[in-house]
Amino acid sequence: MPVKPIVQALKGALIASVQAYPGEPLRHPETMAQMARACELGGAGAIRCQGLSDISAIKGRCEIPVIGLWKEGHEGVYITPTLRHARACSLAGADVVALDATDRPRPDGLTFEETVAALRQDGIATMADCSCIEDIRRAVACGCDVVSTTLSHAGAAIDRGANDGPDLDLIRQAVSEFPDVPVVCEGSVHCPADARAAMDAGAWAVVVGTAITHPTSITSWYVEAVH
């Protein structure tokens, strides 16, 4: 399957994940849009963000591609859990829609494959958030445009990580099996060296969130070191 132009534009890019958790002072669409624009000025090649308001606000502020998702709930499939959520992200302005690629049950009763098939029919580009090589194989088989290691690292919704850094082994395995498929590294990229290691492992692009856009966590790292 040929790589879509919007996905080709992500090759070699640093993708900034601009998200704030519920109850945090930065959780406001305008604040997220300002953060996204700051990342764009710093050289980010794309923005990953969640929620319809944030997607819309960021799309209106930035010129780089927007990867959108919609988190709902806290257990099971909550990253763009249904076809309705995915279509809404696209309508809000997302150039690529990210969704959970595991085989767990979804709230609308559709399988992952059925959801992707409907989105492909709509002409919507998809990023599959994967936890393991089986998820990546499933995503490639049903025609997802990008696969990502979003759910594979330590601390993810499905914790399959062996260490605190990015899942380089999964990236290498995926790139080896699917050399023509864009494989994105996401999760536990905490420093420039982690990002470089991911690219050296064959990643198409690297997503960095907390280490760039979550000052509460960054501050806590320094506080812990000082203490």
Short key terms for the protein model shown above:
227 residues, alpha/beta, TIM Barrel, 8-stranded parallel β-barrel, 41% helix
Walk me through the structure.
The longest helix is centred in the N-terminal third of the chain and has 13 residues, at 29-41. α2 (29-41) crosses α3 (52-61). The protein has one domain: TIM Barrel, CATH 3.20.20. The protein is built from 10 helices and 8 strands. It has 227 residues and is α/β, with parallel strands linked by helices. The protein has an 8-stranded parallel β-barrel, surrounded by 7 helices. The chain has helices at residues 5-8, 29-41, 52-61, 83-92, 112-122, 133-141, 168-177, 192-200, 210-213, 215-226, and strands spanning 14-17, 46-50, 66-69, 96-100, 125-129, 146-148, 183-186, 205-208.
What is Rg?
Answer: 16 Å
What overall geometry do the principal axes of the alpha carbons give?
globular
Task: Tell me the fraction of residues in β-strands, as a range.
Answer: 5-15%
Q: Look up the CATH topology.
A: TIM Barrel
How many angstroms separate the termini? 52 Å
What is the CATH H-level superfamily?
Aldolase class I
Structural class given helices, strands, pairing? alpha/beta
How many domains in all?
1
- What spatial order of strands do you see in the largest sheet? 1-2-3-4-5-6-7-8
CATH top level class name: Alpha Beta
- Catalogue the unreliable spans: none
- What is the averaged pLDDT score? 94
Report the CATH architecture.
Alpha-Beta Barrel
Number of strands: 8
The main pleated sheet reads as: 8 strands, parallel, barrel
Helix content range: 40-55%
Order of helices and strands: HEHEHEHEHEHEHEHEHH
